[in-house]
Structure formats: C-alpha cells, structure tokens
UniProtKB/TrEMBL annotation:
It comes from Rhizobium setariae. InterPro entries: DUF459, SGNH_hydro_sf. This is DUF459 domain-containing protein. GO terms for molecular function: hydrolase activity, acting on ester bonds. It holds the Pfam family DUF459. It comes from the Bacteria. Residues 61-83, 369-398 are annotated as: Disordered. Residues 383-398 have a biased composition (Basic and acidic residues).
Length: 398
C-alpha cells in the first residue's frame, strides 16, 4: 500500500483541524460570576485549547452592577418611658392658660376658621392669650337666612366677654342678594349699597360693646375672577373699618407673587419654601394658616395689652444707672448716656425714647459727631481697654 503524497496529507490535516476548531468554537464557554454583589467584580472566562494555540481573544470585561437595597422606611420616633414591665407614652407638656387670660374671638366664614387655627398655634405657648373660634364656614353677609352675623356676634360677646374681636369674611359673598324682596346681582349698585350697610352693622356691634376690632382682608385665590372680586371687597372692608376706628390687616402680599397673583407655594413664617394653599385654590395648609396668623400677632398683643416680655426690668427715674443727672445739667465731654428701652412699655406706638427728657443737654461733641463730621475717632477714656497712650512719668519733687 502506497502512502499518500505529502500534499494530500497536509490537506487532510488542515481539514481535520478546521473541523475541530469549528466544533470547539460552537461549545459555549462557561462564565464564572462572583457571588458577592456588594462590590463590582470583573468576570473572567476560562481559557480553552484554542486560546493556547491562537492566543487569547480580547473581550471587554463584564462588570456586575451592585444591587441597591431598597430604602428602609423610618418609623416615627415616639417618646416612651418604661414603667416596670409596661411602656407609657409620654405626651409633650401643654401650657395651661391663666384664668385671667385675654380672650380673642374669631368670627367669619371658612377663612376665619383657618385663621383661628393659625392663631391658636401662634399663642400656644402664651398663657395670657386664648383664641375662641366662633366661625361658620358657610356663612357670609349676603345670606342672612343662613346666619345673621350682627345678632350672632352680639350673643357671643355677651357669652365669652372677649378682649378683642377678629373678623374675616367675604369669601362666600359673591352671589346675588335679596334687597327689599328683590334679587340684586353681585356688585350692582343696589348690591354695593346694601352690602356696605351690613358691614357697618357688623362693625357696629363691636363699637357698641367698646371692644377693639381687627378685620382681616381676603387673600388672593386661584380663580382670577375670584381674586379680583376679593380685592374689591377688601377695599370696602378697609374703608369701613378705618372709619369706625378699627384695624384692617392686609395679608394679600403673603399669598401672592410680585405681580399680586395667586401662588400655591411660598415662604412660611421661618422663610422656608412650603405649600401654603390647598389643591382647590381656596383652602390653606397648616403652614398657610400659621402664616396668615403671623400678620395679626403684633396687633393682637398691642390691642389686648398682653406684653410678651412681662419680666423685663422697666427703667424710670428711680433706677437709672446714671444718678445725679438733671435735664438742666451740661456735659462737655460725652462718654456715656442713659440707656433706652428696647420695647414700648405702654404699647402706645410712641417713637420717643424712654426718659428722653432726662438726657442732658450737651455743649461738647460726641464721638459719633466727631466721626461723622470730621472722620476722626476721639481718644479713649483713661483706663479703658483701648487706652494705649503712654503717660510721662512724673518727676519727683525737689
């Protein structure tokens, strides 16, 4: 038997080798994955015989992405105290109102109800003020068949004896009114005339009982037409309240943008951005109620005479630090003056300094005048910490 020629043997070897290579390439290579998914690791495939013959094929390294654990929900912290084997829930301490606390009666519609909630939160830590909510959400000055506010307010004043009355009303009054048995359209001439009379009658109840009054204006609303009508009603309220000697509080800017248009979100009493209004464009959130009350706090304390810093030492002629100073005395070298009060103790709105009549008349130039007029600083008084002047040693006598 003759051997095949060398060319035929090489051809047969190449065919067998090609078939073997094709068979090996058809078999999938096993891949080893790391079981630790907390850190991304590179996947390294096994090397086959083909890799040894023809070299390792370069592949892009596959990286396992870490699996992020879902965030855990934090449970609200509860203050608890263990008493033996049982757990007792501790409630935050509440400040009790004094028996002689001044009562502030808040009346009106659903906006007045929100205002009362905000004022309650505002004076929560003040034992000298108590908020009485007397609002009716569906009421107004148009539908007297639902609620006659002058008569109702008279009864509430006789029952509660408030020190101050706060009114907020008008959001339900954009409707026709019955005048002398005839239906009048909203904002018609007859409607305006009758509505002004009802405002005066409402205010007259507080005037007759000699009780201070705060009338709170309406804020902007999501509806442009409702906002326009609210602005018109605010003008009526302001003119009538100020004519009767009451206080009108305008809160419009706190719930509108720089153009006076409605905003749903804005800054709260701490300057933080929050949601102020509800999704209906009418109601107020908790932050919105608190912000509305913020506009009234100062006037409420002024009108009720409830001084927030009651323990502050008041300065008068008997306890001034500088003694022996009379209005007629003259000082040529000014170094100190009598202190002034940080507050207005009498709550009378006076802008005069406390005991300004005791401040002596001066003929010299104060350090302030010297700095402003000449741009110079006066020498430090002898012995003060900033007195850096060298003193000449006195020569001994003789």
């Amino acid at each position: 038997m003759t051997n095949p020629p060398p060319v035929a043997r090489r051809t047969r070897f190449r065919l067998l080798l090609s078939a073997f290579i094709a068979l090996v390439l058809a078999i999938p290579l096993p891949v080893v994955y790391s079981t630790n998914i907390a850190h991304a690791q590179e996947v390294r495939p096994r090397r086959s015989i083909i890799d040894f013959i023809f070299g390792t094929r370069r592949r892009k390294p596959q990286v396992m992405r870490p699996v992020a654990e879902p965030p855990r929900k934090k449970r609200p912290h509860k203050s608890v105290v263990r008493a033996g084997s049982s757990i007792v829930k501790v409630e935050p301490p509440t400040i009790q109102k004094r028996p002689d606390a001044k009562k502030v009666l808040v009346v009106g519609d659903f906006m007045a109800s929100a205002l009362a909630d905000g004022l309650t939160a505002a004076v929560e830590e003040d034992p000298g003020l108590a908020i009485e909510k007397g609002a009716d959400g569906s009421s107004g000055l148009v539908r007297t068949d639902h609620l006659d506010w002058p008569t109702t307010l008279e009864a509430k004043i006789g029952e509660l004896k408030p020190a101050l009355v706060v009114i907020m009303i008008g959001a339900n009054d954009r409707q026709q009114m019955s005048v002398a048995g005839k239906k009048e359209k909203f904002r018609s001439e007859a409607w305006n005339t009758e509505y002004e009379k009802r405002i005066e009658a409402f205010i007259g109840v507080t005037t007759k009982n000699k009780i201070p009054l705060i009338w709170t204006g309406l804020p902007a609303f999501q509806s442009p037409s409702l906002s326009a009508d609210a602005a018109t009603l605010n003008n009526l309220y302001r003119s009538k309240v100020e004519m009767a000697g009451g206080t009108f509080i305008d809160i419009w800017d706190g719930f509108a943008d720089e153009n006076g248009k409605f905003i749903a979100s804005g800054s709260d009493v701490n300057g933080q951005p929050v949601r102020l209004r509800g999704s209906d464009g009418l109601s107020l959130t908790k932050a919105g109620k608190r912000k509305m009350a913020f506009y009234l706090e100062k006037d409420i304390r002024r009108l009720t005479g409830n001084d927030e810093i009651a323990n502050l030492i008041r300065l008068d002629s008997s306890n001034l630090p500088l003694e022996g100073i009379t209005p007629q005395s003259t000082i040529t070298k000014i170094e100190r003056i009598a202190p002034i009060s940080f507050l207005d103790p009498e709550l009378d709105g006076s802008k005069a300094l406390l005991d300004s009549n005791l401040v002596p008349k001066t003929s010299g130039i104060s350090p302030r005048d010297l700095l402003i007029e000449k741009g110079e600083t006066g020498p430090a008084p002898e012995g003060r910490v900033d007195d850096f002047q060298w003193k000449k040693a006195e020569k001994p006598a003789g």
